Amino acid sequence: ERLRRVFSFQALYAGVPPARALAAYAVIAYMDTVAGVWFPRGGMHALPAAMAASAEQAGAQFHWSSEVTRLEHAGGRVHAVHLAEGVRIPCDAVVLTPDLPVVHRLLGRAPRRPVRLRHSPSAVVLHAGTDRTWPDLAHHTISFGGAWERTFDELTRTGTLMSDPSLLITRPTTHDPALAPPGRHLHYVLAPCPNTDIGPSASAWQTLGP
Q: What does the alpha-carbon distance between residue 138 and residue 185 come to, in Å, rounded to a whole number?
């Protein structure tokens, strides 16, 4: 049973309970166990920082902390990006990476869909710097609750917080001690939670949070 959970919980990444997931989702577990998971020295931020540095060397320009307010488009193509500070950036192509509702807002329209979009669950993450750790913790430790099927029902259907939580506990200083001062450790604990469409609203988290 535990082995089955280890190789099936990844379906939650796509917002689907493992019992209802297509077999294709098994590719996620395959990538985790066969292809392997890599952790960059310096933490996850080191990867985009290195990519940005390489792009700048190649002539790319970055507009940090700039809010995009709309995309100017005509004839089925985007021709310019408008920023909140009033800057218009002409372009030949745009790559959009936010959630679909944000993309639709920037474009000023949304395509007609026969089936309504269902957002995947979200997560609450606790980040902690500590002066101690626990020897049983690996870089990634999954702590499964006992109420397996009920947990997925709460996260994807009823919109309630997990009554018997399953948690992902990460200790990046396991493989990169330089991320913390000597004798210190970094931990984060990820708890899946319902999205704000079916679960607590964004404002409710002001009181639900620590």
A: 12
